[in-house]
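Memo to structure team: turn this sequence into structure tokens by end of day. - J.P.
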Amino acid sequence: MSENPQEPQPPQQPGPPPQQPQPGPAYGSPQPGQPPYQDQSQPPPGQPYPGQPQPGAPYGGPYQPQPLTPSDERTWSVIAQVGPFVLGFIAPLVIWLVLRERSRFVDQEAKESLNFQITVVLALIAAAIITAVTLGFGGIVYLAFIAPIVFMILAAVANGKGEPYRYPVTIRFIK
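Reply from structure team:
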């Protein structure tokens, strides 16, 4: 026995000799009944190459995103409604951009939330200007920002049930 374990070891018991392939026509040589000038390495015109995907094959078409399940639709639409508590208008914007092609419901609700958040940001800017102009007495305007919190909670509850929600007093920037 050899000392190197990587070397192949001869079989212990002799068996029948391995079968040798039968000689046939060489690759590219003419087959019986075909003219000798035809190249056999290429398929006939109009025929696909071996291994080439056929038209209409499952992987031959354009990418189609997988639709969301109803449970996932409700989850993502609720996240689009309550996400602004943490991330502002970024949460509905990202959800809308990523999932708009996968669910019509999520597209609609994330767009609605995004429009509402843009409207709230504009109202906050207006309230800051009013407060600055009135030397702080306009700060009472900020009490009106309790309403958007209530509206976002109502929207999240409606979306959790699978129902659409339309925010009141919203400018529809994204249609």
